[in-house]
Fold each of these.
Amino acid sequence: MCSEWSAAMISPVDDFAGAPLLRTEFALEPGHGTVRAAELAVSSLGIFEAYLNGRAVGPDVLSPGWSSYEWRLRYRTYDVKDLLAPSTVLGISLGNGWSRGRLGWNGNRAFYGDRLAVIAQLEVTFTDGHRQLVRTDQRWRAGPSATLANDLYGGQVIDARRAGDGWMHPGAALAGWGGVESLAFDTGRLTPYIGPPVVRHEAVAPVGIWRSPSGRTLVDFGQNLVGWLRFTVQGAAGTEIIIRHAEVLEHGELGVRPLRSAQATDRFVLSGEMDHFEPTKTFHGFRYAEVTGWPAELAASDLEAVVVHSDLRRTGYFECSDPMLNQLHANVSWGMRGNFLDVPTDCPQRDERLGWTGDIAVFAPSAVFLYDVDGFLRDWLRDLAAEQQAQDGLVPAVIPDVLKYEPSPSSLAGLGPIAIWSDAAVWVPWALWQAYGDRAVLADQYTSMTAHARRVESLLSPAGLWDTGFQLGDWLDPQAPPGDPFRAKADSHVVATACAYRTATIVANCAQELARPEDARYFRVLAERVRAAFNQHYVDRNGIIASDCVTVYALAITFGLLDEQLRARAADRLSRLVRENGYRISTGFAGTPYVTDALTQTGHLDDAYRLLLERQCPSWLYPVTMGATTIWERWDSMLPDATINPGEMTSFNHYALGAVADWMHRTVGGIAPLTPGYAAVLIAPQPGGGLTWARSRLETRHGLVDVHWHETGHDLTVETVIPAGVTGVLRLPGEPDRELACGPQIITVPVHSRTKPGEPA
Ligand code: BGC
């Protein structure tokens, strides 16, 4: 913003059902020539939409999104030069949003305060240099809107009989309007967005409309998505249309049990005229909608689903000869879109939608490839650092941390740090650095990263094991009982100690990168201590790791905890366990992101492919066989008999287990950074699994990297495009490394027979 905040944070005296409208009317000051520039800055407690003479000031919705409001309340700025008139109304509509709506599964609300309020400052600069300021103050007026209720989980109620845009225009009669009061507010909390705002993306048309066995009208949008429905309709005044949303069907009806207490229900009351409805003060995760009260026979052209999420630029693509894998990949990117709605959330539909740290800790390497998430995640990392600082270095399980306000012990508040979850403080900046090569993220997060590493260090046993405290471990191990996702096969202390090693190693690397040699040495020593303890206490001389399951081998191998000989033995054991389980998945949140890499790095590529291509439950492709269009929370969120998993937590849109996309990009597609930010790129596709071709593309900061390989008979042909100034190294199975020239290039090599370690070539 050009000038300092001098506006007041104003709140309507009457709450107007949680959706007040606020306005001021002003004239451009005469005698200063024409307007050279006009910038509006707005933020709010609750969500806002701002208008000048009835026109939206920007494309964003649900602003100012969700941040750790206690320290960071973001504002948006808009260039509004073209929206000004000699006489103008600045109108703002408020809703409960995250600040005052429900959050979490205990039914609680208003974690950040019980008042809705807005702060806005419009600075108009005239050609003679004169500046006119229009800002929120006690002279503003507040009045009722057509929205009678609004909640992110619950849905929105709009009565079109009360609608009208007169209030947005000069000279409106303001019957029923009242005053505002200014709230005590520290403008030091106001901060600009680092990431993009939330916007509407595309609209999706219904692919089917029919009557359910119980006679309800159901609509299928063909894709599990996040957003809301939009439509124009006319019917008798007072008619109520009710829309319920769900991700799946069960027994032919909406499957709403997974939503738990989230009502996800919008209600629209018709005025008798042509009404346009769009509930922008809520959002739902859904593929299906149940429509009641539509005044005529519902047709596909009557309504559309609006896809809503943060305004991210797509950067990475993957395709191959197996349509099932392509669907899996599409499911990963749709899952990401639905859960990148301002905060990286676990899920977008039930009474949760929280920024669970562990989920993004494992998914970040996939996310950074699919979309440019640099600003998005750096914004969130600021919140993480703020919450952590307020909790003495402890990284909470969710960011923004609302669980700290929850009285319930099930909230995990204060329990921690938790391996993987709290490690997000280190793993997420590292993923951003690898993908975008901007050292600033390491510098910005350095205090947070080291504080987390030191906090973990303080919990280590004298030997160097992380074997105390609460852990989520290999959360959602498929063999754990549905009601007890903690009961994983993997010893949670083995998992935690492995994570402590990875974290200390990354922090040491960051310190080195930031030219802090003493810190680098310190964390390197810490890492070595943990590694030695891990080997001494958890690994026997045959490479068998305590609790002897896939997850512990996957972590030990990929995190680099084992010396060469033990690593080879551990890898054989891993491969055997994977095979003995019939290539079905046996890992949860901790092991799943790493198992294919562990197999690949140790010469068991075929096992990695078989695991990836398995279709029996549990497997990555099982949900695809069941028609999934997003990644599920559980391997069997939908059971083979088409009933919903009986567990309490059964989301159909959870990106965590989609972390395998990262392996697909690097190993199947063949694109990986050789140096952070892809200034040097490794093109190393490893064909297998019967695939005959794959193509991956990545819009890096240096330009487009494009890799397309296909096997024909005995030849493997790789077509690459490397941007100017980027060093490319092509590494193909059984071939010496080749340096790649910039621009397009085609290389054909013979297909070498793929042997397993120990087998004769
Ligand atoms: C969330 C997970 C999260 C977990 C940790 C769940 O309710 O949906 O994704 O990481 O809790 O306890």
Amino acid sequence: MTRLLTICIGLLALPLAAQQVPDWYNAGHERRIDSLLSIMTLEEKVGQMTLFTSDWDVTGPTIREGYQDDIKTGRLGAIFNAHTAGYNRDLQRMAVEDTRLGIPLLFGYDVIHGYRTIFPIPLGEAASWNAEAAEESARIAGRESAAAGLHWTFAPMVDIARDPRWGRVMEGAGEDVYLGKVMAEARVKGFQGDDLTDPLTILACAKHFAAYGAAQAGRDYHTVDISERVLRDIYLPPFRAALDAGVATFMTSFNELDGVPATGNKHLLTEILRDQWGFMGFVVTDYTSINEMIPHGVAADEAEAGLLAVQAGVDMDMQGAVFYDHLAEQVESGEVAMSQVNEAVRRILRMKYALGLFDDPYRYSDTTRQSQNILTDANREAARRIARESFVLLKNDDNILPLSPGSGRILLTGQLADSQEDMLGAWHGDGRAADVITLLTGMEEAVGDGAQVNYVPDMQEAIRAARRADVIVVATGEDWEMSGEAASRADIGLPGEQEAMIRALAATGKPVVVVLFNGRPLAFPGVDSAATAILEAWFPGTEAGHALADVLFGDHNPGGRLPMTFPRSVGQVPIFYSMKNTGRPMDPNNKYTSKYLDESNDPLYPFGYGLSYTTFEYGAPSLEAGTMTRNDTARVTVEVSNTGSVDGTTVVQLYVQDVVGSVTRPVRELKAFRRVALAAGEGQTVTLELTEDDLSFYRRDMTYGSEPGKFMIYVGGDARTSNSISLTLE
Ligand code: GLC
């Protein structure tokens, strides 16, 4: 059966015009800010530019004493790591009732993939390729955060990441620019909604601005040295997508960029973000990143670092106390213009007005609403559903999966099978291990009387128990603390003896199903050959076990696709699909071409890859017209069929190659995709659109735009597809 279904994908254009005025901007508030600024003392203004952590969570290297006194004296305008409606109400009362002007506090927190109901880590959520799901999880996280007294999350992290040694790949959307833009937009809209005066919405924060993910050697906080072209073509677009989605704040990154730390980088924070993009929210630094310009070697002392930061365009100092200690004096000495301080304070007050905090400073401190909105059954159901969609089926020989819930002896092993805390992943906010459903619990609840789950965590015992099993399920991978911030790994294999364990289990001759828990792509070629099936589960969150049982026992057909390339070995890193062709592309028959002596150029699993319990076939792509002008929209149509016996969802991916450019261009780049649900035997005709902006880039002269000529269009189920057609831009 074929239904003609024209699905037009409006592609995220990247207009280089300034940001349209965001919907939270209110000219009426500006007049109230004018009045407030006119009566604020310089010390009170510096207070608004200061952010300190409470002592409830530690997310960085320093903790200050006495922040409550600073609130009461008006020297502190924002707090992070403080949460729950009651505690934040107490702190807010100090600001509103004990200070001269009663300016409300702003409460921030790292709500990265859930506040108390924890969703898959963002890299896992990106593997769903489901923007609606990403928006939904951010909306639920935002509602729970707001109910817990929070106004602001330090998310989404939108750093493009192409080096799996870097622990923070878990926090973003992976290697691809287009998927990164889609996820950035979705998450900002989820957190902020379409009305910031709604007390169940919070400010979002696009971080870490910029190119933090390009840290050399994948080592956190390391040097970033990339061209302006790579910055503009690869690392900035997700930030621009966040800005176009109305993001209220940006956070500077720890790294230097072309020799200048981002926190003191006027090109980045003012010329690009303000002058070219027209950003109207405020910029906060990362944790003591102003102070860190001293070890970076661009400031001799904190005063000089503070000067660099404020003159570059920083509005708020996170935890550094540099503005707190030096800014007033620098204004009084004339080193810093009062107008610069006023502009920073205006941007900060603008967001407090946008949240309605001046109308009611306690509108986020409702303990009744807190109890009604946190860890609800509906939130858990959403977490289970979204976790299911994050899983990627990497291998399924002999169709060993799905398992039957009604028959068979299942041996479950691996320490992670019964670990609640590890399922939460890094940056799990107020998520609690006790809330988590483990893989063991999920499987035990799912099987009927005719089947049994025998959990044997010890490897030697498991090998003995294998004799009495029909199938072995191995929970393997990383502990949750092996990824996230300050968690880079030089070896991205399976930790410890897990690979040996899997090989030993496979040697028993019983089928082995590997369930992988990890915060980054891992290199596990040995496991790949030993395992019968591999399910990539990332860190699935609070509902891990239920979601995994749904997939392992076939209640849900997995449809996830890899948002990052999985290497064969760490020696290939960085390895990503949109590489350049080079002048000597790999030729196995020619020594003098780009390759290794001891490793393939190919990844273990490519970007966009994922299997299903069914199979899909793609017809040849066709074009409405083989040529297009700059003002046209090209429509690429392809027939997709579910040729198996199970309903399933595939992700139709469209890649573009600019064959000849004024500069070298990647061998292909994702420019559109569409998730398509197909019943067994069903076919659909899917049409994806391309505009001139999708063919544009920073050209030889660093202007942004397209160039006429030939383009190859690839349409298929992952980045390796050869299913192609050519298009000419006139
Ligand atoms: C950390 C992280 C940043 C986080 C901040 C506050 O160092 O780099 O992503 O939002 O500090 O916890």
Amino acid sequence: MSKPKIAVIVGSLSKQSINRKLGEGLAKLMQDQAEFEFIDIGHLPLYNRDFDNMPDFKPFEDIKPQIRGCQGVLFITPEYNRSIPSALKNVLDGLSRPYGKSVWAGIPAAVIGSSPGGAASAMAQQHLRNVLVSLDMPTMAQPEGFVRWSDTLLDADGNIGAASHDFLSKFMSKFLAWVQLNSKK
Ligand code: FNR
């Protein structure tokens, strides 16, 4: 595989999102080794299975080609009340339907996330892993990406700071190797 294309899905819709900043830092860190496409999920309606029978209303169908064009998916999730944000569950559900037309099956994935608290989004990530099993996405087991947010995680230019550089480089290198191993594209 030449340079793989990785879809990045950030669970936060906030303009100030620390998880989006983390994602942008990771994309910069690995820009020589992979191409990163951030998938916009903020405009999606709340998924309703009635959409499956509405051929003229296809907000979820419209973004399926973006996912299909990628060899891997990096999920970056905040923790909301010990789980994943509803916006993230919404895109996972919406793109898993209509039945039999899920976009997710077989695409290698990794999970990472940040929070200022000591738990560093760990419980949200565990909930997300549960969903990804159901969606049949081969998900990298280790290293786990529990990133405690601090002002020094990124430098002034948005690059991954010195303290986390080695860990996050290793995380991303292992993910790209995981994609190489598991991607069918
Ligand atoms: C949070 N936050 C939070 N943090 C945490 O570690 N565990 C939690 O259960 C929660 N719960 C929670 C619920 C809701 C509704 C909000 C808005 C926030 C704090 C959260 O980690 C913090 O706001 C992060 O900055 C959110 O990530 P983004 O949106 O900045 O990427």
Amino acid sequence: MKFFIDTANLKDIQEAVDLGVLDGVTTNPSLMAKEGIKGVDNVMAHYKQICDIVDGDVSAEVIAVDFEEMVREGEMLADLHPSIVVKVPMTRDGVKAIKHFSEKGIKTNCTLIFSAGQALLAAKAGATYVSPFVGRLDDIGHDGLVLVQQIVDIFSNYGYPTQVLAASVRHVPHLIQCAEIGADVVTCPLSVITGLLKHPLTDNGLATFLADHKRVNS
Ligand code: G3P
């Protein structure tokens, strides 16, 4: 399973790279705004910086909502760096744009997926990734992981090359369950990735090993 970090924070991205387990980055307009990145030139420069830090796919989302503008914006993003994946929302124009990008060999990530039907449509249009939002479905009383399972099963039934990128992954159990289901990718904050390190028995065991070593070597 690939690990993507869901942030536009360069320090967090660098920390995940340094850990040696990062396969890519996803961003969205909210995450860019959180870092205070505004204006086309600054946004483009920030994406470039992210691509220079990470060896892997970097999703950069279009702001446009109509087909022509999505295509213009997406092509500009794709020209920025070979790692850029154009992130497109699940709308009628978005599906048309995904088809267009797919025919031009530009990678896409179809975002804001909340149903299996939306994922199927994006796969048929040639999306490289589909992003079901696990946590946001949980927020409204649904089980986001059931959707991930449905999409994995459907893509497997037909051998679709589209990768299932579980997004809005909020905590370690989400990530582990995505791995059990067979999601191709999870994207999550740094805290979820570093959360995988933690177990109290590891801490206690290490403390005992070091204390025993010190006792006989001092
Ligand atoms: O990748 C989508 C993600 O940024 C949404 O996460 O936690 O805001 O639902 P969240």
